[in-house]
Every structure is written in structure tokens, then in C-alpha cells.
From TrEMBL:
This is 4Fe-4S ferredoxin. It comes from Acinetobacter courvalinii. It comes from the Bacteria. InterPro entries: 4Fe4S_Fe-S-bd, 4Fe4S_Fe_S_CS. Keywords: Iron, Iron-sulfur, Metal-binding. The keyword Iron applies. GO terms for molecular function: iron-sulfur cluster binding; metal ion binding. Residues 14-46, 48-77 form the 4Fe-4S ferredoxin-type domain. SUPFAM superfamilies: 4Fe-4S ferredoxins (SSF54862).
Length: 81
């Protein structure tokens, strides 16, 4: 049980969240993948939606700003705001 709570907490704390209902990667969009200077984002081979493959965000924001459907939310840590 503790593991489950830890896992949920970890996912909730992910710096970049993708709203899969809004993401149109399955229609060919790769904007966020292309603009991330760290190559942190990718299109998941099964869901065909964008996701954060590496958790090393620089909070530079182009993924959120350039997403045509507002599917991305970058959660900037309080200390960096
Ligand atoms: S830019 Fe937005 S719509 Fe396009 S793949 Fe990324 S999350 Fe999906
Ligand atoms: S905020 Fe910057 S580093 Fe983080 S996922 Fe978006 S483009 Fe990549």
C-alpha cells in the first residue's frame, strides 16, 4: 500500500503533465517533442500521446507555450517561481 501512495505522489509531482484527451500526437503533432531542448518528451508508442520520458525538466516552458491544444502543464517548483 505504501508503495502505491508513493507512486501516486511521484506521478502527481511530475514536472510536466500531458492531458491525453487534448493531446493530438495521434494525429501527427510532435511540437513539444521538437521544442524541448533536453529531449525529455516523447510520443508513447502505445497511447500515441506525448509523455515525459525523462524527469529532468529545465522549466524553460516552450513545450507548454507552443502546444497547439494547451495539453501540457509544466509545474514549476515553488522555489523557482
Ligand atoms: S505539442 Fe501538445 S498536442 Fe502536440 S504532441 Fe505535444 S502535448 Fe500533444
Ligand atoms: S519545460 Fe523545457 S525542459 Fe521541461 S519539458 Fe518543457 S521544453 Fe523540455
Amino acid at each position: 500500500m505504501a508503495f502505491i501512495f508513493k507512486e501516486i505522489a511521484h506521478r502527481t509531482a511530475a514536472p510536466v503533465l500531458v492531458d491525453e484527451d487534448k493531446c493530438i500526437a495521434d494525429k501527427g503533432c510532435t511540437v513539444c517533442v521538437d521544442v524541448c531542448p533536453m529531449d525529455l518528451l516523447a510520443i508513447h508508442p502505445e497511447s500515441n500521446k506525448a509523455y515525459m520520458q525523462f524527469d529532468e525538466c529545465w522549466y524553460c516552458m516552450p513545450c507548454e507555450k507552443d502546444c497547439p491544444t494547451d495539453a501540457i502543464q509544466v509545474n514549476i517548483p515553488y522555489l523557482l517561481k
